């Protein structure tokens, strides 16, 4: 089962890495566009273009910072840790879906199994933390029963 956790961890790491690369590429493109933009006779147009490029750079810097935070959170997870209580890095199997508590990375597929990568700070993540197999909880008018914590 630790192989499952390792695969889910690797997919989350890949998700974060791609986010970081996309943000960095967008920052580089915006900075390149800003330096390539030469001042023309339409001074206001030039200034507006530079301002738009700066806003784009700032927005992508925020995305890069968020991705860095996710990477830091992932680096704190040891996929080989085993616990009977749900914690960060745990896989939780419920009657209404399977969850990997790590970072919000959407749906992950491993061996035809579907797992929702959720942040421990998310509504479902906070409900899962500390729970053991057999526990039940309710979220958004839906009842979940935990079958297994890996």
Taking the alpha carbons of the first and last residues, their distance comes to 7 Å
What sort of overall outline do the alpha carbons produce when their principal axes are compared? elongated
Which blocks of ≥5 consecutive residues have pLDDT under 50?
none
Following the backbone from N to C, one meets helices and strands in this order, namely HHEEEEHEE
| Helix content estimate | 40-55%
Number of helices: 3
Beta-strand percentage range = 15-25%
Report on the biggest sheet.
Answer: 6 strands, mixed
* Strand neighbour order, sheet with most strands: 3-4-2-1-6-5
Radius of gyration: 21 Å
Number of separate strands = 6
* Strand-pairing-aware structural class: alpha+beta
Could you report the average pLDDT, rounded to the nearest whole number? 91
Number of separate domains = 2
Report on this model:
β3 (106-110) and β4 form a beta hairpin. The chain has helices at 2-36, 43-75, 123-128; strands at residues 91-94, 97-101, 106-110, 113-118, 136-139, 142-149. Strands 3-4-2-1-6-5 form a 6-stranded mixed β-sheet. α1 (2-36) runs antiparallel to α2. The protein is built from 3 helices and 6 strands. The protein folds into 2 domains: 2-75; 91-149, no CATH class. The chain is elongated and about 65 Å long. With 150 residues, it is α+β, with helices and mostly antiparallel strands. The chain is 49% helix and 21% strand.
